[in-house]
Amino acid sequence: MQTFNGAGDTSGAARPKPQFYFLLILMAITFVLSFYILRPFLFAFTLAIVFAVLSQPLYRKILKYSFRRETLAAFLTTVIILILIVTPLVALVAQIFKEAKNLYITLAMGGGKDVILNSLNSLVAQFYERFPGLPEFSLNFDQYLKQSLSWLVNHLGVVFSNVASLMATAFLFLISLFYLLKDGSRLRKKIISLSPLNDREDEIIFKKLEQAMSSVIKGNFLIAIIQGTLTAVGFAIFGVPNFILWGTAAGIASLIPSVGTSLVFIPTIILLLVGGQTFAAIGLLFWGVLAVGLIDNLLGPKLIGRGTGLHPLLILLSVLGGLAFFGPIGFILGPIILSLLFALLDTYYYLVNKKFENNS
């Protein structure tokens, strides 16, 4: 590789330090700007990378039977993944809407409003008996309903904006997944060719990152299945109807960072309370905290750490730190970045030992 001296001719005698540092500064500025430009799409692109890595066996099999037509194989793989994700979600949402409709009919036709209002007033009265010094307030169901509807109307723009953002994220995810499947191998070769490390070391790093991605996703899905099953069992024990449906909903909700199974547990506990089933509500609360909630914190790091080779404490800290820094996608990026760090440390250790052996 040739170098340029200050006069502009090629020579190995002098190293162009000013030009070299100027290039590094420009690269750093461009990298930071590129990060902020692509940051809004980080969630969709990261998910696309993860699904592209996990769906490689399916893609290769379709590629084989499609006579090596990469575009067709990538398109069919994307369609299959879309069907596998959308079909159960649509069925679940439809069933939840059906249950919500039945609940509304029950409340409207059977005097449910009065039952809920009386139960809430009874709970408030019991609360004031224990804490008599607090200021009193009355429950006006119709007033609160009107206020809720008014708030919903005033925030319809935000609701539609969030729905539009979700649709755009899903579209970007599918487009990114298609191109990563189609051109992923060429992109990988390009990164390896640009890397100053040996091809063997680059392949080791890529292999560890793929293992980390697979471990994070499989671990989270296994945790979701366990939490959904335990939720269904708890709902069945405490007499909640349609426990299989709500267990499935809790399993899917557990994949949502910072929300989890509380999205299903909290409304159910409130309904049990206002329905006068205090014992069942308290029992379900303890079941949700102990039997379901602790699974994510105790079993999750072990399942994820098994594939990444990291200690469970590091996995837990990387997930929490990733959520704090990157937002919802941090539960994936945190362990992956930490795995990359240790892969680079292993490579550094190997290169240092190799250099030491050559010098000796």
UniProtKB/TrEMBL annotation:
GO terms for cellular component: membrane. It is found in: Membrane. It is a multi-pass membrane protein. The chain crosses the membrane at residues 20-37, 43-59, 71-97, 159-181, 221-244, 264-295, 307-326. It comes from the Bacteria. Keywords: Membrane, Transmembrane, Transmembrane helix. Pfam families: AI-2E_transport. Its main location: membrane. The keyword Transmembrane helix applies. Belongs to the autoinducer-2 exporter (AI-2E) (TC 2.A.86) family. This is AI-2E family transporter. It comes from Candidatus Falkowbacteria bacterium RIFCSPLOWO2_12_FULL_45_13.
